[in-house]
Amino acid sequence: MTEAAFSVIKARRGLPGGEVATSPPDFASLSYVDARTAVGVTLDDVNGCLLHLSSEYPLNIIQQLKEKNLSDNKKALAIYLLGAIKPQDTNSIAVLVERIDFEVKVPYSDPKWRSLYSWSLYPARDALLRIGEASVGPIVLDLPCETNALRRQLLCAVVSTFWRTNWTTAWQPKAAIDQLQRLRATESEQSRQQNIDAALGLLIDNKVDLNIGWSGYLGE
Fold first, then answer.
1. CB of 201 closer than 8 Å to CB of 148
2. What residues have CB less than 8 Å from 173, skipping those under 6 apart?
3. Engineered SS bond to 130: which of 13, 83, 93, 142, CB 3.0-4.6 Å?
4. DSSP secondary-structure letter at 195?
5. What SS3 state is found at 19?
6. Share in percent of the chain as helix, strand, coil (round to 5)
7. Which runs of E-coded beta strand occur in 28-168?
């Protein structure tokens, strides 16, 4: 987009030229509906090139997740926003990996749920998928420490999505498998070896549940 076109769009929206946002919505002080609206407007402006996000923006989302007592729905909304802006830094990815098994129920009995909830039962997994291939390396490094079967399944569901050459026959994510096998070859601690073997078993034997927790998820 040219600078002239960018200026025209900014003028139409009544926004100052070159606006850069540092602070995300204050999830703790807003109602869920208001926070959801604020997130939607932010993403619309970012996607329309009307707003740029500073490097501090994802860090400020992380700060709220760590320091504020948010309801599960607001935590999920903050995680959704973090994934939607697709940060590539390791801090953001580490926070999502840490929360990979955070589960939030979508109230399917609410007739408005489709417009109010944009994630599956596991929003951090959704966010890591949106971030893309940058999430694979940190997840691979985390798997040797991972003893929980659910967390392992969710993390492997993310890494198994990338670098597949053939979705019908070659289901193995070769890059992630190669990285884990290199770690396994140099690992001396038995418990970490076992964790790596468990992850490799899921990835090599195609036992990753790619649909885990997807009920109600709205893909973008």
1. no
2. 136, 159, 160, 161, 162, 163, 164, 203
3. 83
4. H
5. coil
6. 55, 5, 40
7. 52-53
Q: Torsion angle, CA of 58/21/34/12, rounded to 10 degrees?
A: -140
| Dihedrals phi, psi of 211, to nearest 5 degrees | -100, 5
Q: Which residue has the tokens 């885990």?
A: 212
Pick the closest to residue 154 from 103, 113, 109, 110 (CA basis).
103
**For residues 162 and 153, what is the distance between their CA atoms, to the nearest angstrom?**
15
pTM: predicted TM-score of the whole model, two decimal places: 0.85
**Pair 23, 42: CB distance under 8 Å:** no
| Mutual angle of helices 72-84 and 123-131, in 10-degree steps | 10
The DSSP string of 142-186 is HGGG---HHHHHHHHHHHTTSS-SBTTTB-S-HHHHHHHHHHHHH
- Residue 76, token pair as written in the block: 């999920």
